[in-house]
Amino acid sequence: MPIIRIESLITDQHFSIQKICKEISKHFSEMTKIDEKFISVVWYTIQPACYCEAGITASSQPENSHPALVTLLVPNIHSQYRQKELLNALAKSMTKYTPFKLDNIFIHLQVAESGQVFDQGEIQYFD
Q1: Is residue 58 within 8 Å of 65, Cβ to Cβ?
Q2: What are the boundaries of each domain within the chain?
Q3: Per-residue H/E/C for 39-72
Q4: Model pTM greater than 0.85?
Q5: What is the pLDDT of residues 63-117, one digit of tens each?
Q6: Measured distance CA(114)–CA(110) in Å, rounded
Q7: Burial class (CB in 10 A: 0-12, 13-18, 19+), 66
Q8: What is the third-level CATH fold of 3-62+82-124?
Q9: Which of 85, 87, 86, 89 is closest to 27 using CA atoms?
């Protein structure tokens, strides 16, 4: 952990999601000093007309609406100040390696509590 989950409509620009996921992982790792072996990035493409914002659906990713929906899942070991650093680092990684402008990215921070994560065959407790 952290786990980065990105959801967006199909864009008109052609790019490799595989390459972008790797670049975001590496850049986010470098910016946050979190070893990349702990970072996961997953990208889901929302089907056309399956994302409604302000009562309007879109068939492809608009530049100024229907922001990319991003969840950043982190363990509860980080201070509020550090959480803000992580959010800003992810926003910078997103704007550097995706076609999204900073003002068209919505990032939600989700904090996983110690003892509420099952990974590697057992409940995880954060020190």
Answers
A1: yes
A2: 3-62+82-124
A3: CEEEEEEECCCCCEECCEECCCCCCCCCCEEEEE
A4: yes
A5: 899 999 999 999 999 999 999 999 999 999 999 999 999 999 999 999 999 999 9
A6: 13
A7: buried
A8: Macrophage Migration Inhibitory Factor (3.30.429)
A9: 89
